[in-house]
Amino acid sequence: MRLNLKIWRQAGPNAAGRLVDYVAENVSPDMSFLEMLDVVNESLLRKGEESIAFDSDCREGICGMCSLVVNGVPHGPDRGTTVCQLHMRRFKDGDTITIEPWRARAFPVVKDLVVDRSAFDRIIAAGGYVSINCGGAPDGNAIPIPKDVAEAAMDSAQCIACGACVAACKNASAHLFMSAKISQLALLPQGDAERERRVVAMIEQADAEGFGSCSNEAECEAVCPKEIPISNIAKMTREYVRAVLAAK
Amino acid sequence: MSSRIRVFSTSVGTKLLIGVTGLALFLFLISHIAGNALIFLGRDTFNTYSHTLTSNPLIPVIEIVLLLIFLVHIYKTVTMYLRNQQARPVAYQAKKSQGSPSRRSVSSLTMIITGLWLLIFVVIHVKGFKYGAYYAVDGADGVRDLHRLVVENFRSPLMVAFYVVSMLIVGSHLWHGVSSGFQSLGLDHPRWTPRILAFGKAFAVLIGGGFILITLYVHLFGGQVGQ
Ligand code: HEM
Ligand code: FES
Hints:
Largest interface: A-B, 51 and 47 residues
Shape of chain B: globular
CATH topology of the largest domain in chain A: Fumarate Reductase Iron-sulfur Protein, Chain B, domain 2
Oligomer: heterodimer
Number of helices of chain A: 9
Number of domains of chain B: 1
CATH class of chain B: Mainly Alpha
Distance between the termini of chain A: 64 Å
Number of strands of chain A: 7
CATH superfamily of chain B: Fumarate reductase/succinate dehydrogenase, transmembrane subunit
CATH architecture of chain B: Up-down Bundle
Largest sheet of chain B: none
Strand order of the largest sheet of chain A: 2-1-5-3-4
Bound molecules: protoporphyrin IX containing FE, FE2/S2 (inorganic) cluster
Structural class of chain A: alpha+beta
CATH topology of chain B: 3 helical TM bundles of succinate and fumarate reductases
């Protein structure tokens, strides 16, 4: 296959960026999207040009590093997949593909397609953990958790913090990301002790980072590689109301 | 107390306020259209209804509460919109909806535009009716002939067009707004959410379409059919 690519190039955080046209020759339908970019980069290096910077690590949909907006959709056209799991058979010979970075004030571009997502780390650091001292590891059966509750918590825990929710949201809101962690921990006895403090701290941190608010469009849910639903955001709201009412 | 007030300036607290005020305005619209539909029963029924309503001593209190709700809704949505714009300073060159399960629609993307139109509409609407010409009903002391005012207002095709467009716009605002309001309050349930989504759209059509029907009926028949 031969593909026309329009790729966002930006030399650094404060440099002006623009879409640059490239042609990818001899693309096999069996290649992954990132392998296709590797091939483009090799040809750029051969020509003595600077390669295109993009993030990736596991390349199997579990680490959350890859972060490309493909033809206007974070992680590309397939549902429930990261862009590293996207394959070139999804495209046709001669297609034009636009590739951009996540765009949000809280996710500044580092270079080309790479953005700085440490705002997410700071949101987690504000309360997305369990810090109560509970002594040594208890027996696994000592803390009974109903199976459906454990499964709901696991569904929320699937978040890989890639940031596609922010990238897709018209308000660049981080609500799906935060709410997944808040729901997961609120469902479990281990997270219960700090649930009020956690939800308030994480929401205030996300607001301070400059993420927007939720317009209930669920565009985030539609692009989430783990298909985490916005019912998590509703749960976060309930947790927030609970925390406010319980505040002393 | 101060921390309780700050609650409503976080992103989640803001949406709680927008949801509560939006749904309150929605409830008001339901009662408003139910009352106005009495125009189909003729002039006397309509005037009796509007007289009973406006002479109720609670009405000024309710009006002030409604005005406050309206102002909070506007203040919160406009400031939130501006903040949300700042959250993405560099726009995408290509942006597309992923489609289902996304609920994005023309309606959801234009909430601020339809909302601001409604603000202008409400000002014109209240000026034209509540503070419009005062006609008395012959022989009934202190009873305002609002029916006549409605008929005269809707004689102008321009006014009718403005109302029809505005009611399409209120329908659009509610198409996304009703279910979104419930979601903002933290209501999401596998069984109820699909029903709330359908209910919201049905009411958007009923309210927008109902007001259009009333407008056209008054314009075409002078509100006189069946008398
Ligand atoms: C008849 C009057 C109105 C009714 C019945 C109404 C109703 C609603 C409802 C039910 C919502 C959903 C709330 C939520 O998402 O939590 C909403 C949202 C909204 N309203 Fe209104 N509204 C009215 C007037 C206005 C006005 C005058 C504005 C002016 C700016 C406005 C701007 C907005 C905006 C921007 C949103 C979207 C909020 C978001 O993106 O999350 N509305 N409205
Ligand atoms: S590279 Fe790890 S999820 Fe895509």
